Amino acid sequence: MKEHRIYNFNAGPAALPLPVLEEIQENFLNFAGSGMSITEISHRSKWFDAVIEDAIARTRRLLKLDDRFHVLFLQGGASLQFCMIPMNLLPEGKAADYVNTGTWSTKAIKEVKIQGKTVNVVASSEDRDFAYIPKNIPFNPDAAYVHITSNNTIKGTQWAEFPETGSVPIMADMSSDMMSRPFDPNPFGVIYAGAQKNIGPAGVCMVIIREDMLARVPQNLPTMLKYTTFSEKNSMFNTPPCFAVYTLQLVMKWLEETVGGLDKMAAINEKKAGMLYDFMDRSEFYRGTADTDSRSRMNVTFRLPSEALEQKFIQEATQAGFGGLKGHRSVGGCRASIYNATGIDAVSALVDFMKTFEKRNG
Ligand SMILES: *Cc1c(COP(=O)(O)O)cnc(C)c1O
């Protein structure tokens, strides 16, 4: 029941827009007059073809992608991209630049090393527990590419602006801030995002790859690990994750038609994050963990004066109808993930709850 839904601050899988869930529910038994559920139809049918084409067209419009960019839907999550990028796009004899801004970047770096390829970690914020995004990075002009994590889901930091890398393409893991703000796609060779944070359910990874990257793909890779396999067959070399792609399509439709595009979405996200950070900045009780200039607008990480109070906070918040506020198990503390689908009303209610909790326990 709609009235039993909680304020969902999950980090991923995370909240989806309510109108999207309602549209799925309404059409679940009979999709587009087919007499079948979306989960029962062929991926080669005209019905699914319309779904995937619309998902791609909307993605192109939202991100202002020109014809050089292919929009692909892959499986294996963002984690498979950590290995596919060096496998496909880092030629023998070349090296890649990686910026290490946290857990996910660290995992991406590891996958290059496993392949015996050369990775230069050109900057890292590990010295202060990944609380900031490095500046003035000495990128190598002859690197095959630069890899960054645009939003660090666990540490609560985000690139406010993307780095200047000249002609070196940027590969960006945008899993947790894809479609949260507009940006210039042209410097990017690959943009990838596990859908389950900000653009859909688990089971599909959106991969946007620039045409010139496809020329780098070696012939001798396993078929399912080659970008060209998917770019040549419009993501339907084999069965795509149909239900996840359908849900993603509806999220893109919501972004375009209900929200009104990424400028509008960014303004809302800025407002939500501002409400939490402004409140915490005025409080002695709650302390944000990220440096001010590196704060994430998607994952607001914070601490209370003690671990005991953090436990109490999470427990009472859960009872009051706020879910997902526990920090990642690797870092502890608290985290409010405020992705696109989490409304201003939810953030406002959370700030009120935090105020009351502070009064009672501060
Ligand atoms: C969650 C997350 C991942 C891992 O995504 P999977 O789809 O589970 O592989 C990678 N990068 C970032 C930034 C994430 O937030």
Automatic annotation (TrEMBL):
> Please, which domain of life does this record's source organism belong to?
Bacteria
Start and end of every Aminotransferase class V domain? 6-350
Look up the record and report any one GO term of the cellular component aspect: cytoplasm
- UniProt binding sites for pyridoxal 5'-phosphate: A78, S79, W104, T153, D173, Q196, N238, T239
Gene coding for it: serC
Query: From what organism does this protein derive?
Result: Desulfococcus multivorans DSM 2059
Name of this protein: Phosphoserine aminotransferase
Identify the cofactor(s).
pyridoxal 5'-phosphate
* Family membership: Belongs to the class-V pyridoxal-phosphate-dependent aminotransferase family. SerC subfamily.
As for what it does, the entry says: Catalyzes the reversible conversion of 3-phosphohydroxypyruvate to phosphoserine and of 3-hydroxy-2-oxo-4-phosphonooxybutanoate to phosphohydroxythreonine.
Keyword Cytoplasm attributed: yes
Q: Where is the protein localized?
A: Cytoplasm
Q: What is its EC number?
A: 2.6.1.52
Keyword Amino-acid biosynthesis set for record: yes
Detail which positions bind L-glutamate.
Answer: R44
Q: A GO BP term, please?
A: L-serine biosynthetic process
Q: What class of enzyme is it?
A: transferase
